[in-house]
Amino acid sequence: MAKSISLTRYLVEQQRVDGLIPSQLRLLLEVVARACKSISHAVNKGALGGVLGTANSENVQGEIQKKLDIIANEVLIEANEWGGHLAAMASEEMDGIYLVPNRYPQGEYLLLFDPLDGSSNIDVNVSIGTIFSVLKKPDGDRGVEEGDFLQPGHQQVAAGYCVYGPQTTLVLTVGDGVAMFTLDREQGSFVLTEENVRIPEDTKEFAINMSNMRHWDEPVKRYIDECLQGKEGPRGKDFNMRWIASMVADVHRILTRGGVFMYPWDKREPNKPGKLRLMYEANPMGWLVEQAGGAATNGKQRILDIQPTQLHERVSVILGSKNEVDRVTSYHSTL
Ligand code: P6P
Prior knowledge:
This protein is an alpha+beta fold. The protein is built from seven helices and 17 strands.
């Protein structure tokens, strides 16, 4: 049986081989992984840990916060603030950025996260996850400001998620492909279980919330309608549909077996470009998908090329199997 490779050994060897992971970034990723282990433990307790239900507060998005949303956010802040690898953090659950307190050394990285994505699934025991993105802070000695976070996704130096499902699996890229690590609860460590993850360029599976169909723009309606016509329609094949309402779980399926995930703009809130957040959902997931040979656009441009203007800005998301994403994107330019 092949010797198991821990996350620590993988990161050390990646650092040694191609220098993609400076020691400070390796430390950051190990701290984030340890925080995800703690979050997984809290999630797995469920009702026994008194962590289900709402916290009777709203986040910056105006969404009711779950108790675990706040717990996960606090775990990530407390795990990362003292290590000396970060200058500041940003979270879906916090209005503004979080500067590393002066009592701790300042690092050169910025960490952004959705501490518990898919939290509407928490109380019904369906997979949820933590999404994270790492940027470098601009050079210079001045203090970090919110504007320093507003970097396009192609400037990320690391991105990943941890899915809390039947297994707890950490999925990571530092720009040299995608690797997956499964939590070995007996050892308490993440073990390499997949590397060089590849998304098939074609698929027969789409993920979208069909209840919003009447609100979609024409290009999305055309694409889904053609899928629903199956063999007899213009696609000449039948399609399957999945929608877990947890981006981490849907993206993990796509990284594992292909598919296309869509959360497009719709007429319900015409002034918002979409529901999902650019900085700590679409950018990290978009980079992971691209690193696995897939594609990620907002219907009109590559997600990683979008210049952010606000920390919590939203974006329309179409990502997954390259040929399907290209097709949906082409429909947006032909209609
Ligand atoms: P809907 C979870 O709240 C989330 O941000 C994503 O994880 C998920 O893909 C989407 O929203 C689900 O949205 O409108 O289907 O509940």
